[in-house]
Specification:
Length: about 475
């Protein structure tokens, strides 16, 4: 565990660019050009984890032995000019609720430390098939229940920009690994913004794919999830560079028979739609922090300079979609989570109680109506996006909150859910979105998300690259900029 009070003077000295600063695509190109070996790259990342993780507590388990063995095998393939795939020899990290064969899928819960997965999850299997090398498992809150990363197993992950602020959740460990150079590419998942929200907090980037685009399955019980999770949760890549998200998506979207929801859309698919964007400058009842307004302005300016047309007409029913998301989540949680109360930490139980207070109980007919609303709103969005494909929106309408503030009461929880309205509306509708930084505001990273139409990941990625080309990249960051 890491105590934030002991970190006031902690800072890793600045250094010249090193192997741990490379993105996944950069590293893959350099490996094929034989500029260095996979063993050297993996060892550099392992050394970075050893130096940085004691200060930020983002990594739960280091897979050093298996990673170095896999790197030696990759070196033989690369030396012979026969790479296994586009990520051969590149290290990756994996969130602790995604199966890695031989490693425990703890989901942040101490009771699951012995739950070793017999086989890789589809995402990890696809990455290994492309030559990528899992080097570590990353921290997450108990059962991915919070928007702040603090698990009963490992304790809190610290935001490397400011130890007093949340690193986001639930993929906070992944985002912090990426932000501090402990990984060039990560795999997480998104049920309530868990890919995009920690990426915003860390100054990194992430892709939430369309529902069904990236297959997923668990080999550790429970292997079947409630209906709401089946309709909303997706697996996706996290990185420092947008090009790495595209590279990873091309690997991750391959079919896997374990996921009946998977849709075999080619990785290269890009719907032929106009380059039109709506900037979501406001949402009824959602106060925007000036830093968020500035991030939207920066991103919109970058897109307009790259030839995108800005459209005034907003997308339909965002508030109703966000409410539908909350009803689905709370409805299934009330059925499934009581059995887990004895396994999770007191903080996780507190968060569950706050969410149940925040969202009223629905009778069965009211619950069924949520699915009717999902169909209706989804159709309205599809029609809207046929002419205005992209929506530029905040990931979170405020700045990162104080670490642990998501447990401060019903009002605090309500404020967080309200600020995440655009993010959870995307989840309810199963749409793709890319989180991308827009530089620093008051010394902290700020950013936006680009929301696209179903299976329009490539449209989102192109727009995110246009934003990135103007505002650049803000990581790796040395821990800590502020404490």
């Amino acid at each position: 565990m890491t105590d934030a009070t002991s970190l006031e003077a902690a800072r890793i000295p600045a250094s010249t660019p090193e192997l741990h600063t490379l993105g996944a695509a950069e590293a893959a190109r350099a490996l094929r050009a034989k500029e260095f070996t996979s063993t050297e790259l993996v060892q550099a990342v392992l050394d970075r984890i050893a130096a940085v993780n004691p200060r930020v507590n983002a990594v739960r388990e280091v897979l050093a032995e298996s990673a170095l063995r896999a790197a030696a095998e990759a070196d033989l393939r690369l030396a012979a000019g026969r790479p296994a795939g586009p990520l051969d020899g590149v290290p990756v990290t994996v969130k602790d609720n995604i199966d890695v064969a031989g490693s425990a899928t703890t989901q942040g819960v101490a009771a699951f430390v012995g739950a070793a997965a017999p086989v890789d999850a589809p995402a990890v299997a696809r990455l290994r098939g492309a030559g990528a090398i899992p080097v570590a498992r990353t921290n997450m809150p108990d059962l991915a229940l919070r928007w702040h990363t603090d698990s009963g197993l490992m304790g809190p992950t610290l935001n490397p920009w400011d130890a007093r602020l949340t690193p986001g959740g639930s993929s906070g460990g992944e985002a912090v690994c990426l932000a501090t150079g402990m990984s060039p590419l990560g795999v997480g998942n998104d049920l309530g913004g868990s890919l995009r929200w920690p990426s915003l907090c860390a100054g990194t980037t992430a892709l939430r794919p369309t529902l069904g685009r990236v297959p997923h399955a668990l080999s550790v019980e429970p292997t079947v999830k409630p209906l709401s999770l089946q309709l909303i949760e997706v697996q996706g890549p996290m990185a420092r560079h947008v090009e790495d998200l595209r590279l990873a998506l091309g690997v991750l979207c391959a079919p896997d028979t374990r996921d009946p929801w998977h849709v075999p859309v080619p990785a290269s698919y890009a719907p032929r739609l106009p380059r039109r964007v709506h900037v979501l400058h406001e949402m009824d009842g959602v106060p925007y922090d000036p830093a968020v307004t500035e991030a939207l302005r920066r991103a919109a300016t970058a897109l307009q300079a790259q030839g995108y047309e800005l459209c005034d007409a907003p997308p339909p029913d965002i508030e109703e979609a966000a409410t539908g998301w909350a009803h689905l989540m709370a409805g299934d949680a009330r059925r499934a989570l009581p059995a887990a109360r004895g396994l999770v930490s007191a903080d996780a139980r507190r968060f569950m109680d706050l969410m149940f207070q925040l969202v009223p109980h629905l009778e069965l007919d009211e619950y069924a109506e949520v699915f009717t609303a999902r169909q209706r709103i989804g159709r309205a969005w599809a029609e809207y996006q046929s002419t205005t494909p992209l929506v530029l929106a905040p990931v979170f309408a405020g700045r990162p909150f104080r670490a642990g503030a998501d447990l401060d009461g019903v009002d605090a929880a309500h404020g967080i859910v309200t600020s995440l309205r655009a993010t959870v509306a995307v989840n309810f509708l199963g749409l793709p979105a890319v989180a991308v930084p827009t530089g620093l505001v008051d010394g902290l990273p700020q950013g936006v998300q680009v929301i696209g139409p179903r299976f329009g990941e490539e449209l989102c990625l192109r727009a995110a690259e246009s934003i990135e080309s103007v505002w650049g990249r803000v990581v790796p960051v040395e821990a800590f900029v502020r404490s």
